Amino acid sequence: MHAVILAGGKGVRLRPYTTVLPKPLVPIGDQYSILEIVMRQLSAGGFSSVTLAIGHLGHLIRAYVGDGSQWGMQQVDFATEESPLGTAGPLLHLRDQLPEHFVVLNGDILTDLDYADLLNRHRAGGTALTMATYGRQVKIDFGVLTTESGRIVDFTEKPTIDYRVSMGVYAMSASALRPYTPGLPLGFDELVLDMLASGSGPAEYAFGGNWLDIGRPDDYDRANADFGALGPILLRQLSTGAV
């Protein structure tokens, strides 16, 4: 099983933490980096090879990861992004090097999602893309109106809206990338919209466990504050020796 970790972003929203470190290397809980947790989880889940798409401060990620053997990886490759290519663009350069089915994940998330189960479900489903999704709620602090032709036809006082979001974790087939030109920017949003327009929308992998998107300083501070309780859950599938 193979995974691609997207680790080339500048981490602008997470400054000042990312001024001297790429976002995947920021420390969590004074013991691990985000990237180490992800690499340990992938290895424990049966993934033997990883490609890291790097850009901003990528030399630090290269030095930190090395050949990946410290986490039991048999093969680690690096793909350098010379100019911003979007969230899916780096995959186009790798298209001919990747297996038919693989996992892609952002390098700034913490979750106890079972990556192997996601990939196996994708293989069995027969779609070109499977997106891991997570439930969110937004509390609206206003009375919400529905209007028609200048009249109010419905009113809801401070509703809570339930919706599902992309976790930044995907299982993909190489066929999803074939219509696109390497070297041009491509985002997962564009990829999904194109699939929907063609009538072959992605499959959903609904997840209800733990998920943190370390995108902003507030998210990072919360992850560190919660890591005492969350850390054992994130690493529970690892043996004592591996930890």
Explain what the structure shows.
The strands form four sheets. The chain has a seven-stranded mixed sheet. It has a two-stranded antiparallel ribbon with strand order 2-3. A two-stranded antiparallel ribbon has the order 7-13. The chain has helices at residues 34-44, 58-65, 89-94, 115-125, 188-197, 217-234, and strands at residues 2-7, 27-28, 32-33, 49-54, 75-80, 101-106, 109-111, 129-139, 143-148, 151-157, 160-173, 203-207, 211-213. It has one domain (2-133, 165-234): Spore Coat Polysaccharide Biosynthesis Protein SpsA, Chain A, CATH 3.90.550.10. By secondary structure, it is an alpha/beta fold.
- Structurally, how many domains make up the residues? 1
- CATH architecture grouping: Alpha-Beta Complex
Stretches with pLDDT under 50, minimum 5 residues: 238-243
Derived from helix and strand composition plus strand pairing, the structural class reads: alpha/beta
Oligomer type = single chain
* Radius of gyration (Å): 19 Å
CATH class: Alpha Beta
The helix fraction, in percent, is 25-40%
How many H/I helices?
A: 6
Strand order of the largest sheet: 5-4-1-6-11-8-12
